[in-house]
Amino acid sequence: MSDYYSERLSAERLQRVYDIAPPRVRQYLEAEIDHVVQRIGLGGAVLELGCGYGRVLPRLAAKAAFVFGIDTSMASLELGREFLRGVANCRLACMNAMSLGFPDCVFDRVICIQNGISAFHVDQRGLIRESVRVTKPGGTVLFSSYSEKFWSDRLDWFERQAAAGLLGEIDHVKTRDGVIICKDGFTATTVQPEQFLSLTAGLNADVRIVEVDDSSVFCEVKIPGM
Questions:
Q1: Residue-range definition of the domain harbouring residue 99
Q2: Fewer beta carbons below 10 Å: N end or C end of the chain?
Q3: Are 177 and 29 in contact (CB under 8 A)?
């Protein structure tokens, strides 16, 4: 399933996912970005995990000194290089978020939004710890998932994607309780607040759960300063 976004839902097809988003979903997407931008300090270095074609990066680059986006889809990254043409303080790389090619303590902010923690289909605890590893003392890691309050809007958006041929047909018998299942095997889950707290248990960090716009749940992991 981790290959779904690399092989079937990448580049122009991924871009189409956002093009067909209804107004309430567009509001959710903007609210997520606004929340992250508010937490980026001027002059900082930011890493985005699962950047796709770079949809979020220009907003981050407008405030940060330097932005690095990684993804496992070469097709999305190639489109991203065109999309980000002229954004001088941004770089892209094909990289697995579970094994980041950076030394310890490099970035002021590491972000993984729009439910990437679920969409990657990797060990979530390991993903958080690898993100913490590359974050500077005093920096913050931000993960987001969907709020339970956004379920009907989220399902509507996925139904539109399926109707457009971007996803397989949704299995309405199995789809429930925050989990969307398609008949081609695609599965979209979520991480709820109590799960975020469990995943971050034992970290030497200040963990905060924040709900944004009745659509996103953010887990903010603040690394102790020097």
A1: 4-150+192-222
A2: C
A3: no
What is the DSSP secondary-structure string of 45-69?
EEEEES-TTTSSHHHHHTTSSEEEE
Domains contained in the chain, number: 1
Measured torsion, CA atoms of residues 182, 179, 70, 140, in degrees rounded to the nearest 10: 170
pLDDT for 2: 55
Q: Which two tokens stand for residue 136?
A: 């500077």
pTM here is: 0.96
pLDDT at 131: 98
Report DSSP letters for 175-205, one per residue. Answer: -BTTBEEBTTS-EE----HHHHHHHTTT-SS
CA distance 69 to 81: 11
Give the CATH number of the domain where residue 68 resides. Answer: 3.40.50.150
Among 93, 43, 101, 39, smallest CA distance to 69 is for 93
Q: Outline where 89-165 has alpha helix (H).
A: 116-119, 124-133, 151-163
Structure tokens at 210: 């924040």
Residue 23 pLDDT greater than 90, yes or no: yes
Rounded distance between C-alpha atoms, residue 175 and residue 195, angstroms: 20
Assigned token pair, 86: 């002229």
- Specify burial of residue 120 (Cβ count, 10 A radius: 0-12, 13-18, 19+): buried
Predicted local confidence at residue 184, as pLDDT? 93
